[in-house]
Amino acid sequence: MREALLVGTPNSGKSLLFNQMTGLNQKVANFPGITVDISSGPVIACPDVSLVDYPGIYSLHSISEEERVAIRAFKDALLKEHLTAVICILDSTRLEKGLHFALQVYRECQKTGKRMVLVANMKDVLQRHDMKLNCEGLSRSLGVPVLLLSARTGDGIANLTAMVGDGQNKAEVMDRPDLIHMGDLDLRTLAHQLAHQYGPSGDLLIRSQSRLDAFFLNTWTGGLAFLAIMYLLFQSIFTWAAPVMDAVEAGIGLIARLILPLLGEGILHDFVKDALFEGIGAFLVFVPQIFVLTLVVGILEDSGYLARAAVICHKPLRYFGLTGKSFIPMLAGIACAIPAIYAARTVDSPRKRWLTYMAIPLMPCSARLPVYTLLIAAFIPANYALGGLVGSQGLAMFLMYFFGMFMGLIVTALISRTTPGMRHDMPFVLEMPPYRLPSWKPLLRNSWNRSKHFVTRAGAIICTVTIAVWFLAYFPNRGADLGASWLGTMGRFIEPLFAPLGLDWKYGVAVLSSFLAREVFVGTLGALYGIEAADEHISSLAEKIQASGLSPASGVACLILFALALQCVSTLTILAKESGSLRLPAQLFVGYGILAYGVAWIGYQLTGWIVS
User: Fold this and answer.
1) Range among 17-26, 227-236, 243-252, 457-466 with highest mean pLDDT value
2) By C-alpha distance, which of 85, 66, 89, 74 is closest to 19?
3) CB-neighbour burial class of residue 325 (10 A; exposed 0-12, middle 13-18, buried 19+)
4) How many CB atoms lie within 10 A of CB 534?
5) Chain-wide mean pLDDT for the chain?
6) 486-523, pLDDT tens digit by residue?
7) What DSSP letter does each residue of 542-575 carry, written as one string?
């Protein structure tokens, strides 16, 4: 199969173009032996060509480990015989910056005799502002095809697909400058000349961006906007996902009512009802919230706001020993700690990167989301104001996410102030992408893929643990007395550990099983309560927790345990791999476990005193 490489600078629309050309038929892997992601997939209109999407970099002279990995892999790929083209995409509204990188790529293509296609993105932005780009003149000067297109609207992508799939794998015979013997300073001068001669004037866009930055980067208005946007993000998890969650729960109940009568009485009936519908079904109900969370974060990223949020956070993060670049990995930790640890490679300072590793496990990842949602639904009444825009459950979710982030910052602040050399830092440099309207189709596709990946990644573990929990809880008395079951015996043994928090053995078993994956907690409780209430119909797990008599103080303690304890084997494994030692994950596992238990006990005592 032939290959085409897609390279470009960050914020040039590269990933959007990749999604438009390949659709849903994509796979994500790692470069051999390393942990930087690379995406690939066959071009929809030309399925015999595989498009390979490389991480966005600013220059072929790296300043970070992530860039070094991408550059080395790109140069190796240029030596492949089946490489049909190198597609270099640049932002046509910031032509000079993109051209400098494109000329570096073109120089490498000349060395290996490979064909390059230069793609000028943002055609829709140029048309909207009545700006012009002389593609023909730029193509004649460089001796390479130059295509103007819009990755957001898809205008011009068909021409690019036709050019990539025409079967050529060598550079065209055209008059072109010899870049092989030109230094980077000469390339920068050439990029400036070409941008001035053929490119649009960016003054209009710069003025528009400056007006918005004056608001979003202002000390007061920017800070208030940041808090409001973050709160709306977490409120949307409830308000947007609630109808779909209700539909999923109703669908599971309907299927159960159709299937269970066909099974008759016996072990098979009890297994399907308690393990599958109550256990695994309880987890599936919360998947829509993963979709909404990914979608909203994607909107903030595509609109250009996340980079501004990093700038806003830089000054306060410095106080806690971090840098503004730590904000992106920490925010990525809201989805999953594993990609967040990988994203920490963009933190230039090794010391700050190490501190970022310490903060990431305390970020409220999506695996905690089902647990938070379940316990908040069980103990926080669903009160709303302002037409449903503001709600008590959304506020509780916001506070839980804020609590995890706050504790992460407290830990890094203490470590940075007590460890010699931790206060030293490298300069904070970050590009401000232009403000743009998000493209909904790729956003929805990415949210769907993330949700599907979340289910498939956790599904096998949840299914295995749920079946094991059901088996141990059902035998030897076929569920007649849950406390006398094999699981009950095991639970009684560990119950003294959780008794100071007001949690019985069922919660102890669920907490311990969640060390394989945090979301297993929901499935385990679902299976346990399903067996205990075997005569009842399928109903909400939150309602069963309410009916069980668990106190609000114990609910708070359980929330704190999940907020602070490092309950993820995968995270510990990746931390060991990235840090190059078992020392850091071992320290975090023990330290965060002790911290979680101590703070949970304090929260249990304070809540009990307040509600009494």
Assistant:
1) 243-252
2) 89
3) buried
4) 17
5) 80
6) 877 888 888 898 889 988 888 888 887 777 667 778 77
7) HHHHHHTT--HHHHHHHHHHHHHS---HHHHHHH
The confidence score (pLDDT) of residue 67 equals 72
Residue type, 105: V
CB-based contacts of 279, cutoff 8 Å, min separation 6: 462, 466, 469, 470, 523, 524, 526, 527, 530
- CB contact at 8 A, 554 and 609: no
Count of Cβ atoms closer than 10 Å to residue 581 Cβ: 11
Within a domain: 43:
yes
Q: What is the 3-state secondary structure (H, E, C) of 300-329?
A: HHHCCHHHHHHHHHHHHHHHCCCCHHHHHH
Residue with tokens 């309880």: 282
* pLDDT score, position 418: 83
> Which domain CATH number covers 113?
3.40.50.300
d(CA 571, CA 358): 11
**Whole-angstrom Cα distance, residue 595 to residue 589?**
10
> Among all chains, which residue has been given the structure tokens 């996902």?
241
Q: What angle do CA 46, 51, 347 make, to 5 degrees?
A: 160
Task: Give the pair of three-digit tokens for residue 522.
Answer: 């929901």
Between CA 238 and CA 436 the distance in angstroms is: 26
pLDDT tens string 403-451: 988 899 999 999 888 876 555 555 566 667 777 777 777 778 777 877 7
Whether residue 72 is contained in a domain is answered as yes
**CB of 109 closer than 8 Å to CB of 116:** yes
E strand or H helix at 249, and its extent?
helix 242-263
Report whether 554 contacts 498 (CB < 8 A): no
- Token readout for 84 is 């049909």
Is the dihedral angle over the CA atoms 516, 326, 214, 224 positive or is it negative?
Answer: positive
- The torsion angles phi and psi of 8, rounded to 5 degrees, stand at 170, 170
Q: How far apart are CA 494 and CA 512, in angstroms?
A: 10
Q: Would you say 282 and 523 are in contact if contact means Cβ atoms under 8 Å apart?
A: yes
Token pair of 537, please? 């119909």
Rounded Cα gap, residues 523 and 279, in angstroms: 4
Within-domain flag for 89: yes
Distance CA 289, CA 454 (A): 11
For residue 65, give Cα distances in angstroms to 20, 163, 348, 470, 488. Answer: 29, 33, 8, 46, 50
Structure tokens, 242: 């609630």
537 is a domain residue: no
Partnered with residue 38 across adjacent β-strands are 29
Which one, of 327, 109, 401, 370, lies nearest residue 241 by Cα? 370
Tally of domains in the chain: 1
pTM: 0.61
C-beta separation of 158 from 85 below 8 A: no
Instruction: Using alpha carbons, select from 569, 561, 572 the residue that is nearest to residue 596.
Output: 561
> Which pair of tokens denotes residue 223?
């800070």
* Euclidean distance between CA atoms 580 and 557, whole angstroms: 34
- Going by C-alpha positions, the residue among 21, 63, 60, 58 that lies closest to residue 42 is 21
Per the CB < 8 A criterion, the answer to whether 274 and 266 are in contact is no
Higher pLDDT, residue 45 or 26: 45
Tell me the C-alpha distance between 397 and 559, whole Å: 11
| Residue 35: domain span | 2-201
Q: State how far the Cα of 347 lies from the Cα of 412, in Å rounded to an integer.
A: 15
- Give which of 325, 313, 322 is closest to 359, Cα–Cα: 322
The token pair at 20 is: 């438009």
